[in-house]
Specification:
Layout (H helix, E strand, L loop, with lengths): L7 E5 L6 E9 L3 H9 L8 E7 L5 E10 L10 E8 L1 H12 L4 E3 L4 H8 L5 H11 L4 H11 L2 H25 L10 H29 L2 E7 L5 H9 L17 E7 L2 E7 L10 H15 L3 E7 L9 H4 L4 H4 L4 E6 L1 H4 L4 E5 L2 E5 L8 H13 L11 H21 L4 H19 L6 H8 L7
Parallel strand pairs: 1-6, 7-9, 7-10, 10-11, 11-13
Antiparallel strand pairs: 1-2, 2-5, 3-4, 4-5, 8-9, 12-13
Protein name: tRNA modification GTPase MnmE
Subcellular location: Cytoplasm
Function: Exhibits a very high intrinsic GTPase hydrolysis rate. Involved in the addition of a carboxymethylaminomethyl (cmnm) group at the wobble position (U34) of certain tRNAs, forming tRNA-cmnm(5)s(2)U34.
C-alpha cells in the first residue's frame, strides 16, 4: 500500500443494503476533479449542498447532499468529497463505477481511509483501531470504551509515561556524554526512584488495560457436563426459545450449537456441547465429544451441568471429570445443579470449594432468576468501570515495555547508566509502537487496517 498512498481513493462508506441514505467517500488530490465531473463544481468547503450527481454524459444518477472538505481539515487529512445519496445499492454502485472510471481514481482498500488519517497524523494508532471497535461494539459499555479510546483516553495515559521515560533517558544520556556537567538533581537514588515511579505507572496501566480487555471482549460461555444432565435445556432457557433438541434419550446432542444472546445489551456467546461420555463406543458421539472438548478449552467461563436426581452431589469437578482437571484449574467454572424439581431442593446459590453452585430447574424455571443475576454480577459486569478499548496487541507491548523497565530497575542498583538508558529507550519504543509513533513495519499496519470495512 506504500506505493499507493498518494492515489485518490473512493468507496461506499455505508452498509450495502437498502436504506434511507447511502454515502460515497472520495479522498486524495483528485477529489476536487471528481467534484467537478460529478457535481459540475467544487462546493464551498464544509457546507452541505443539495446537488445532482451526474455521469460523464450529464445524466443525473441521483440527487443528494455533497460536502467538500479541504485538506487538512478532513477525516483523512486530504481533500475529501462526501456524496450522500439515497440508500439504493444499485444507484450507489452505478455512481461509484462512474467515479472510478475517472483516470487515477481507484477503489479504496479495507480501512484505507482510517489508515490515511493515521499516516496524516489525524489519529494515532489506538484511536484508529477504536473506529472498528466502535463499529463491532456489542454493548453500551463497549461503545463508551471505544468512544473514549477515539477521544484519546488510552493514548494520553501512554503519552504521559512515554514523556517520563524520555525525560529520564535524555538526562541519563547527558550524564554519559557530558560527565563534566553537574546535574545535581539526578542522584543515583533519584534515578532509582524515578524508575520505580515509572514502573508503578506501567503496572497500574497494564492492570487497568487487562480489566478493560476482559470487559469489552465478547464472553464465551460453554455449557458442559455428562449426558442427559439438562445442558440443552439450559441452552434453550438462556436463549428463550428451543434451538436445541431436548430428549430423555442420552446423547441427543452430537454437534456444537452456538448462539449469541444479549443480557442488558451485553453480547454473550452461549455454546451447547455434547455430553462427556468418555466410555462411548459410538463413533458419531465420539466426534461430538471431541468438538465439546475443543470448545471447553477456549471458553471464558464454563457452566458444568449436574443432574441432581441421578448424580451424587460431588462438586469437585476435577475428580468426577479428571480428563479436564488441567483446564478446569484455568477456566472459571460455575456448577449448575439442575433438576431440583425432582429432588425437592430449594433454589439457591452457594459457594463450595471456592466455586459457585446454582441449584435450579430448567423444567420449572426455579432458580433461573438467580442464574441471570449471577451472570450479570459475577461474569458479564464484574468490572463496570471500563474507560477505554484495549487489544491483545496493546497488552503484549505493555508487558514487554514493563519488562524493560524492570531491567532498568535492576541496572539502577549498580549505577549502570549506559544499560539503564538503553532499557529506557527500548521501553519507550515499545510504548510508541502502541500509538503508532515511529512504526515502520508496513505489514503491522496492513494487518491492523485490513480488519476494517471498505469505506472506513
Amino acid at each position: 500500500m506504500n506505493n499507493e498512498k498518494n492515489d485518490t481513493i473512493a468507496a461506499i462508506s455505508t452498509n450495502i443494503g437498502r436504506s434511507g441514505i447511502g454515502i460515497i467517500r472520495v479522498s486524495g488530490a483528485l477529489s476536487s476533479y471528481v467534484a467537478q465531473k460529478i457535481l459540475g463544481n467544487i462546493p464551498k468547503a464544509r457546507y452541505a449542498h443539495y446537488s445532482s450527481f451526474k455521469n460523464i454524459k450529464g445524466i443525473v444518477i441521483d440527487k443528494g447532499i455533497a460536502i467538500w472538505f479541504k485538506k487538512p481539515n478532513s477525516f483523512t487529512g486530504e481533500d475529501l468529497l462526501e456524496l450522500q445519496g439515497h440508500g439504493s445499492p444499485l444507484a450507489l454502485k452505478i455512481l461509484l463505477k462512474e467515479i472510478i472510471s475517472i483516470p487515477n481514481i481507484r477503489i479504496a482498500q479495507p480501512g484505507e481511509f482510517s489508515k490515511r488519517a493515521f499516516l496524516n497524523n489525524k489519529l494515532d494508532l489506538t484511536q484508529a483501531e477504536s473506529i472498528i471497535d466502535f463499529i463491532n461494539a456489542s454493548s453500551i459499555q463497549e461503545i463508551r470504551a471505544a468512544v473514549n479510546s477515539l477521544q484519546g483516553f488510552f493514548s494520553n495515559f501512554l503519552k504521559e509515561i512515554i514523556h517520563l521515560i524520555k525525560k529520564l533517558r535524555i538526562n541519563l544520556e547527558s550524564i554519559i556524554n557530558f560527565p563534566e556537567e553537574d546535574i545535581s538533581h539526578l542522584s543515583d537514588q533519584n534515578i532509582h526512584n524515578q524508575i520505580n515511579s515509572i514502573h508503578k505507572k506501567l503496572i497500574n496501566l497494564y492492570k487497568k488495560a487487562s480489566e478493560n480487555h476482559l470487559t469489552t471482549a465478547n464472553t464465551k460461555i460453554v455449557i458442559a457436563g455428562f449426558p442427559n444432565a439438562g445442558k440443552s435445556s439450559l441452552f434453550n432457557t438462556l436463549l428463550k426459545y428451543e434451538a436445541a433438541i431436548v430428549s430423555k434419550i442420552s446423547g441427543t446432542t452430537r454437534d456444537v450449537l452456538r448462539e449469541n444472546i444479549y443480557i442488558d445489551e451485553k453480547q454473550v456467546s452461549i455454546v451447547d456441547t455434547a455430553g462427556l461420555n468418555f466410555l462411548s463406543k459410538n463413533e458419531i458421539e465420539k466426534i461430538g465429544i471431541k468438538k465439546a472438548c475443543n470448545e471447553i478449552k477456549t471458553a471464558d467461563h464454563i457452566f458444568f451441568v449436574i443432574d441432581a436426581y441421578t448424580t451424587k452431589p460431588n462438586y469437585q469437578i476435577e475428580k468426577i471429570c479428571p480428563e479436564f482437571s488441567v483446564i478446569f484449574n484455568k477456566v472459571p467454572i460455575t456448577i449448575i445443579h439442575n433438576k431440583i424439581d425432582l429432588t425437592q431442593e430449594k433454589e439457591e446459590i452457594i459457594k463450595i470449594n471456592n466455586r459457585y453452585v446454582i441449584r435450579l430447574s430448567t423444567y420449572t424455571g426455579k432458580g433461573i432468576k438467580i442464574l441471570y443475576q449471577y451472570l450479570k454480577k459475577n461474569i458479564l459486569f464484574k468490572n463496570t468501570n471500563c474507560n477505554f478499548f484495549v487489544r491483545e496487541r496493546h497488552l503484549n507491548l505493555l508487558k514487554k515495555a514493563s519488562n524493560e523497565i524492570i531491567k532498568a530497575k535492576n541496572n539502577s542498583q549498580y549505577n549502570y547508566y549506559e544499560l539503564i538508558a538503553e532499557d529506557l529507550r527500548l521501553s519507550e519504543n515499545l510504548l510508541n509502537e502502541i500509538i503508532g509513533k515511529h512504526i515502520s513495519r508496513d505489514e503491522i499496519l496492513t494487518d491492523i487496517f485490513n480488519s476494517f470495512c471498505i469505506g472506513k
